[in-house]
Amino acid sequence: MHLVEKYCGIVKLLHNLLQNVHHACQPMPGEEQEDIVMTSTQNNLLNTKCPLTGKPVTELQNPIRCMDCKHIYEKEPVIHYISTKKPHPRCPVAGCPNILQVGWVVCDALLTIEIDEMRLASATNINSTMVEDFYRS
Fold first, then answer.
1. What are the start-end ranges of the H helices in the chain?
2. Max Cα separation, the chain?
3. Which of 7, 27, 113, 118 could form a disulfide with 32 if both were Cys (CB 3.0 to 4.6 A apart)?
4. What whole-number percentage of the chain has pLDDT above 90?
């Protein structure tokens, strides 16, 4: 039994040495407990500017989204566009085949949240750029 205990002690010692040499502060394979954290740097908005006014989506006063094609517009200009381009006003985004209808352009529940996230991401990028520029000078 004494020999088996020595062998186990040597194996544990080698295990610890390998752990410290190759994976300092990291669990050995098979011992890890994984937490998966998913983040997104993607923006969920289909267009970042109103195709009618050219304003960035983050600056729109009354943003609305077409429920068919998901493009985002300023409310008043798109309502005017729909009313003047009868009988079948096409989405003004190049290549989009959808027909716009007043009842199908709305401010859905997620739109304001997505725009706020885009504003926050823009502010974060501006602040990190300012820090980078500060250190470069």
1. 2-22, 75-84, 109-136
2. 94
3. 27
4. 39
What pTM was computed for the model?
Answer: 0.59
Q: How many angstroms separate the CA atoms of 137 and 132, rounded?
A: 9
Q: What is the mean pLDDT of the chain?
A: 79
124-to-60, 127, 130, 135 alpha-carbon distances in Å: 20, 5, 10, 17
Q: Which of 22, 26, 25, 2 is nearest to 14 (CA)?
A: 22
User: Which residues are CB-contacts of 88 (< 8 A; sequence separation ≥ 6)?
Assistant: 99
Tokens of 8: 């186990």
DSSP character at residue 111: H
Burial of 25 per CB tally in 10 Å (0-12, 13-18, 19+): exposed
